[in-house]
Each structure stands twice: as C-alpha cells, then as structure tokens.
Amino acid sequence: MPTNLLKRYPVLLELDYLSTRDRFASLRGIFDRDISNNAIFKFRGKQIRPIKKEGKPSMDTLFNHLIKKEEKDEKGNKTGKRIYESDRSKRLHWIKHHIEKKSIDNIVIFSYEDRIKGKDTIRTYIYDKVNNYVIILEPQRSKIDYYLITAYYFNEPGGDKQIKKKFKKRLDNIY
Q: What domain count does the chain have?
C-alpha cells in the first residue's frame, strides 16, 4: 500500500492485490496528497476546486468521481449508482502530473462547449493522446477558479473517438 505513494506517471498503481479497505485507504492517501491537501493545485494559474453537491462533502464527491464510474444496466442505461473502476483508480496519480503539464508532448489542452443538463457549458479538456486519458475541468462562473469534474481512462469503445470529435470542434480559446 505505501509503495503506491511512490508511483509516478506513467506507471500504474498496484491495487488488485489489496483488500477493498486497503485499496480505498491507498487511493485516499494519493488523493489527499495530490488534490485535497495540495494548496497549489492549480491549472493555468487558477485554483482547482471540487464541485459542490448538496448535502455531501465536496472532496468526498470528487474522490468518488475519480475512482468510480456510473453503473449501467443490461440495456446500457445509467442507474445513478457509482461503482469502483480499476482503470480510473490505477491512474489517480496521473491527474497531478497532467495538471502540472509535465509531459507536454503527450497532451492536448482545449475547451469545448458541451450540452450539460439542457445548458451550454464550457469545459476544458486535458487529453493524454498517447495513454488515452482525459481530465475534465469546468471554469467557475467567476472565471477565477476551475472545478475538477472528473478524469478517466478510455476503456470503453468510442471514448477516444468522442474526444477527438470534440477536439475538431474546439473553441478558439482555452477557458
């Protein structure tokens, strides 16, 4: 478990051999180090904050988005429940690496206007084109800070195709 704290991009975290309790403790240690206890967690000079969700601690909500995915039923419809995802979790420590733009040759950064819950919403994407990984940020209305929405590995068909389509229709500026 402590060896995961030593892992650096692009090495994956070793989680499969851990019990559920130890796995979450290891992931929480990395999350706390890189994100929740990191006073200088900034992208392009703007502080990155968790999105607020009514009645739930913000950091817990963000942690769950970074290590879990939305469950789907047998028809492919989202159930509203989140379940642990190994591929996301093994790459949790990649977020800080990409936010700090340490491997600039591997990443593409762009903003795109998404349609979220019936509203046009600008989001900024940090796309690791070599390792099929994306981090999604959303500028706050004040434009002073960012919200970290989620980050994930493209392990399902069509994910990389969708991000490439968004890149082609990207906005002229990065927000």
A: 1
